[in-house]
Amino acid sequence: MSSSLSQLRRLLGYLRNHKLEFLTGIILVVFMSYASSVIPILIKEAIDKGISTKNYEFALRYSLIILGVAVLQGAFSFTARYLLVKSAQHAVYDLRMDAFRAIQRHNIEFFDKTYSGQLISRITNDTERITRFLSFRIRMFVYSMFLIAMSLYYMSRMSGILSAVAFVTIIIVVLINTTYAKKVRPIYDKVRHQTGVIASVATASISGIKTIKALAAERFIQGKFSNENEKLYKFNIDATRITAIYGNASFLVLGLAMGTMVYYGGKGIIEGLLTVGELAAFLTYMLTLMWPLRALGFTIGDIQRSLAAASRLFEIIDSAPKSIDPPDAVEIKNPKGKIEFKDVWFTYHTGKTVLKGINLTINSGEKVLITGPPGSGKSTILKLIARFYEPTKGQILIDDIDIRKIKTENLRKIVAYVPQEPFIFNRTIRENIALAKPHAEINEIIKAAKIAKIHDFISTLPNGYETIVGEKGVTLSGGQRQRIALARALLLEPKIILLDDPVSNLDAKTEKELVEDLKDILKDKTAIIVSQRLSLAKIVDRVVVMKDGNIVEEGSPEELAKKGGLFSEMLASMKGEKNGE
Ligand SMILES: Nc1ncnc2c1ncn2[C@@H]1O[C@H](COP(=O)(O)OP(=O)(O)OP(=O)(O)O)[C@@H](O)[C@H]1O
To answer: Which segments cross the bilayer (predicted)?
Structure first.
């Protein structure tokens, strides 16, 4: 409970920049509620003092007053709604930004452990729920509570017994709707989740359509889709059943209450204890209260869920590191590009130890190929230099400084990491290259593209550097994607370049071209290339062979070729493949 309260306080804290609008909105809701509560009393007066006594002037006067109050109520309602929704939207805008910034600050391990769908749902569904809570639910809560209090007050002044009937009805209707909300919400959650599952099955089967058709797997995929579709159908039917029962139960209770009121009220009128106007006022109160009571039930049933949504967002925000750098972080002004691993051990969050005491020194300007069997830990070496993860034990130094002590921004400028499958955003080529330097001059971009030997290709495109690539844009081949990624990396003029399997997805001809060009591209840089393709050995000074998280061989390509170890074996099997053995 106390934690719910502190979540609520923290959530309301997001309204601080729009306090005035929010509070004005709430005050107007109270006015609106007051206006609603006096209308039945005005009806009573109109009936008792005007209609029953056939006093035309009185009846007219009250009709006009009722009209005036209704207009005022409409104006309050409109303004309150506008102010509250606006302030809620502002608050949620800030909250969404905080969550997004926090997601960006999280380290890679966080993304290894968290489903991306979950994060997307936090940013979209949870914030949506909070917006509804801050605007609609709070508004309805204040409106309903105040209206109930005022109505009961006016009713109690007219008739004790009818007020008791109204009071019991209010309690029952709120309870019905609270239960309804509690029962139907989890089913709606399932519906939402299942809709997501259906979307992902559909997306996967559309993106993988070529593979599906090639393997004649249409039936299998249709079967899978049909299963998921059936689940969605069942959840929707469950929701409909509960809605049919609980949604109508309130009307049944209301009908019973009004019947009882007509009976006791009629009796009271006959006995001279109640006026016709008073009975009309009671019945009007019951009708006026109906929707607010239902909303109140939903609000009560929803508070916990909205706070849970808020706490999920707060958790993402709070668990992100405030700053990635320690306070004594340093900057390397003129990097030389020397890299050193000192007894580096690394275990992934899954518990798998993939580096087991790596000692390796790479000199400034040196080009090194790290090769070895799949899963031997090659790519992990690059990810540790890029500081996506921190060593479990040992140290990695750049220019003799522990990389944990180097300011992240500085490290990102010194070290460029080009992943195996570089991500190309659905934007222009210029924006894709300038990702890490959005305000780069076009000349710098062209220079980087020329070094990456992709400028000539870009020049042939209809809109040159302004051509949109990716989905619905120009499709790039594997080699072109690699070169765009290289240009992206080169734009920052890094001293160290880490290439993760740059030729793995390329055909033999494109591979040969890229390997040739890499010689130029990597000039003046320290470069580590991870690959099983030994064609890259031609352009490096040294080869490091890894197996099971250890370095098992190290030396110049010529030395290792003669040594008769794992590298020679790999070379031999590569030649065998070429000769078609
Ligand atoms: N993010 C991760 N979380 C958990 N385990 C991982 C992660 N990335 C890699 N691994 C595991 O660590 C081991 C080493 O992976 P790594 O990618 O470094 O190998 P590699 O030698 O580059 O392999 P390949 O040549 O197949 O790319 C593998 O067994 C892999 O399953």
So the answer is: 20-43, 63-84, 138-155, 161-180, 244-266, 272-293
